Amino acid sequence: MFPISIYTGGSVENGPMGSTYNKPPSASYPAPDHLTFDDLKTKIFQLTGINKDKNTINVNARWNAGAAGSLCFLQMPICENTMWRMLVDKTLSGDSGWSVVELFVEAVPSSCCTHNDPGEKSQSNLECTQTTPELPTLKRSQRIRESRKNLQELSDEESFDVKQPSDELALYSGRLFDSLDDLRRTIREHHIRQNRNFVTVRSNGARYVVKCLDPQCGWKLYAASSKDRSYCQIKTIKGEHVCSNERDGEDNVNMTTEFISKLILDLVKIKGDACTPKEIQDFIHEVYPCTPSYTKAFRAKELAIAHLFGEWKESYAKLAPYLNAIQVVNPGTKVDWLSDATADPNVRIFRGVAWAFAPAIEGFKSCRPVISIDSTILSGKYGGRMLIAVAYDADDQLLPLAFAVIKDEKDESWSWFMRWLRLEVVGPRPLCVISDPQDSIVSLFDQPDSGWSTCSGQAFHRYCSRYLCENIRSSFKKDYLVKLVKWVSRQNQPSKFRLGMLRILETSRQAHNWLVKVGTRPDEESANHLWSLCEDGGYRFGILSENGNECVFNLFPQIQMLPITALVELTFTKSAEIFASKREAASKIEVEKQLWSNKVVATLEARRAKVSQHRIVSLQSQSFSHAEFEVETRSKVKHTVRLGHDQRSCSCQKPQLTGIPCSHLLAVCAYRSINADHLVDAAYDARQLLATWTPQFHNPGNPKEWPEYAGIAYSLDFKSIKRGRRKKDVWSPTLEYRCGMCNGIGHSKKCCTRNQGTLGSSISES
Predict the structure, then answer these.
(1) What is the DSSP pairing of strand 232-238 with strand 220-225?
(2) How far apart are the C-alpha atoms of 431 and 577, rounded to whole Å?
(3) Residues lower than pLDDT 70 in the chain
(4) Angle at CA 75, nearest 5°, toward 73 and 80?
(5) What is residue 547's predicted lDDT score, i.e. its pLDDT?
(6) How far apart are alpha carbons 158 and 146 in whole angstroms?
(7) What is d(CA 367, CA 361) in angstroms, rounded to the nearest whole number?
(8) What global pTM score does this model have?
(9) Kindly report the CA angle at 113 between 108 and 114, in degrees rounded to 5?
């Protein structure tokens, strides 16, 4: 037995010891230890005289939450038997420091509580009487959650004999949820874990009714929201699931893309575009007994990216204001748009945008006159391609110079990007451009008005050695041949280049003929200068591949999958980080009074170590302005070195091709007691390196801090983008399988005998 004091007809006040009632108890009585909450409410109606037919009651307990030996009372709402039994057990144990249960009772006019479910009118009133009364206000629901939290903290070291399920996904009558969305989420995950399906019968904000998808199963759940929608409560659960759940590995209709996207947020954030739908399927199956379809996993990945980096459609609306904010805080930043007009002069259809940050434009002035251009596919929801141009500083480090996003990679897109790059970013300075030999790029260097004409000396076009190797590998499937082509392209000595070409001819005449003819004009027999270092003329400064662009894409993780505004933001933040780190490294070089970049210093040290192995064989000629020497290496190979006021060359061609003296030239300098530092190209000067990374980026801040944008709005033509179910190639055995090369039936073009050992149309023509 334990005493209960009931207070009613007054109000709660806060005193020195916490909550107190401003009136004396209305009734008191000794209660049995096994008293339930329903029995308690019946007793309260009897003792207080509250009309049970016209009112419901809200019960709050006065609970001592003070430390041992102290009193600090707070209100704890009691709305279910679980809370009541926890209170009784705590009082009987004596841990609360208070042996009397004090209840503050409030009478509330009752409202009709029925389920408006057709076909079940005879049971609705019975179901309603078995439910727990609704809590009337948001403030009260907050007190419920707070009291549960306080009581849980007090009972961390103890266990109570209560019937409340420990599983957070358990469904039982009377359970409270913060919102209807929380209830839906719990019901969904509960059924997914059990590999069962349910269907929504009614969902109108006030009532929520679901039932099992299997018509033979009688399980049904009724829930309702409070009048002010501050919480939701399960009222009644009918029956138990008797349907089968032996469908391991199959899809579940209740596992939506939204549900999956919330589960894979961390996975997508870490792995980015490398996270494949198949990997998502495996990840989900490890947690749940079902596996989503490939298409559902694909759509869930898109949705997860939108949750992490912003909505796809909204991203296009934010793009122009964001670029405008960058231009305001970073004067000199260049932006250009490729768009189509609409009926509204203030709105244009987006086709492309190019941007270059002011610090990068300023830093490029101190870089070597070499840039690489490349493109990559955007794997996001609306596709497209990203164009990029990078430069190289005095230490062979990459400087991300300019970017562009285009809807389609067409000749017009490359022409637009390259013309803008010349006019707004790099200026009239003659440059060497390394790229793949795409027709849309190659044609630019033949146009007099493009700004990149090779005939007028505005630019020097060179091919990426990686392109050659990939073409050889895909066509001949011979690793030895790929390694041989790579070795030949890197040779600076003419004798070694000729030897390598001879070995390629012996290995594959077709590959040799293609290498000789690649990039040639009608009046040219060969164009080896486009891809070989030996015949380059020193324009590419020893840079053979545009692999730097791949490294840039590695510097911008996940960039290919991002919405467009998040993509631009990533290029800005990562570029700022690159400039900050490189600036710090360049400052250390200046402090150490180092003349050249780290790469040049290391190269010179390695070559000086070979000087002792060389021997000056003869002095061919010598004058005040010119001297010619013959240097013999340890392997008895002789090189001719020419040294003068305006000349520094060697027959090995390293000084001419890279701007860094070779070991043979250093041997002559040592022989003549000449300081070789002045023989290094000025592009490698440490001061040039520091000047490259000195400019600083200024962050535009969050969208609330952006300046007001009143310019043209750009929108993607979403109607032209085909969405919906992922297309699948379906092959029917009744259809003729015809070759596209020989027009034969029964095999494909890939397997055609005419296509074996060829490099495509370009090789066959040669």
Answers:
(1) antiparallel
(2) 27
(3) 16, 65-71, 94-98, 110-168, 247-249, 546-553, 620-625, 720-751, 753-766
(4) 135
(5) 53
(6) 19
(7) 10
(8) 0.67
(9) 175
